[in-house]
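Q: I'm writing up a methods section and want to include an example of the input and output format. Could you take the sequence below and give the corresponding predicted structure tokens, formatted cleanly so I can copy it straight into the document?
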Amino acid sequence: MPHDQPPSPAQNHPVWLYILLGAIFAGLAIWGVIAYRGHKDTQAANAKAQELQAAFIAAGLPTYSNTSEVARTLGTDGGAVCDTPKALAKSFLKLQLSNGAAGPGQRPIRVARQTLKGELLIIQTYCPEKLSGFKNFVNNFNYAEVVRG
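A: Here is the clean output for your methods example:
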């Protein structure tokens, strides 16, 4: 390669630009890790989780061995269960009302009453103000005697 020709663009790398971009991305990554604060277990969340576990035991439902899992999932406000209890119940019920087949093989099946009992107990514990609306919604189905009381 003769020396009188200018170097090709591939050989003329601005190293300072790569160093600057690397420092910016590293700084953003470090800031993101420091700034991220996941849903921490609080005393209130643990107390609600223990209350829910006791309600599950009293109702004869299976419980988690570790209440911190329940506290992380439901937090202090009940999470998705209390955000849209009717939509969540409707989706669970629709999933359980069919055998998963399509067309002529599809037929209704029995809904596990434990699902309704569990959701009822979660709503009672975390968002009791939504309990009557949930009961009205579920009682429209003739198989849900479990929440009539």
